[in-house]
Design a protein that fits this description.
By secondary structure, this protein is mainly α. The chain has six helices and two strands.
Length: about 170
């Protein structure tokens, strides 16, 4: 049985490492570094967490159409859901067992996000307690850990502790 299992494992590894067909693992947001805000940085830090091109930020584009456009080298900027002025993030497909465009930058973004979460946790656990929303529909309510972490990222970007260019996984088209 052990000998047969070794053979089975060899077949499994061969299938996993077979370049054809590529198995789509998911979609990732990638920053260009042109104008990466705290919100975009948080989305980039998630890596290939998006199950479809549309959930990653492409408006009304199927996975198949997006894959064809990416393979053809088509610029998908016009199809991106934009959340702020000078928005320049992109969406890339991520395939199983293949290094993907922007992976190193996403890893750096995850480190920055984890630092921001630690800072947010320290704020919420401090004697002063969580920050209170000063205005808007949540006025007077305590901020969630995620909101606190977003603000920590904003402060780090504003102070210059983080630079948008250090999270660039793609070059800006502009």
């Amino acid at each position: 049985r052990e000998v047969e299992n070794a053979g089975r494992q060899q077949v499994i590894h061969a299938v996993e490492n077979d370049p054809e067909p590529q198995i789509l693992r998911g979609w990732a947001r990638v920053a260009t570094g042109a104008e990466t805000c705290a919100w975009c940085l948080m989305l980039v830090s998630r890596g290939p967490a998006y199950f479809s091109a549309e959930s990653a930020g492409l408006k009304n584009v199927s996975d198949e159409a997006a894959l064809s456009m990416v393979a053809a080298g088509t610029d998908l900027s016009g199809a991106m859901e934009e959340w702020h002025d000078n928005f320049a993030c992109k969406v890339v497909p991520v395939f199983k067992n293949v290094l993907w465009t922007g992976q190193a930058a996403a890893d750096r973004a995850l480190e920055a996000w984890n630092d921001a979460v630690r800072e947010a946790t320290a704020i919420q656990e401090s004697d002063a307690g969580p920050t209170i929303h000063p205005s808007g529909r949540n006025k007077g309510a305590p901020m969630t850990l995620n909101q606190e972490a977003q603000n920590a990222l904003r402060r780090q970007l504003a102070r210059g502790d983080l630079s948008a260019t250090q999270f660039a996984g793609l070059k800006s088209a502009a």
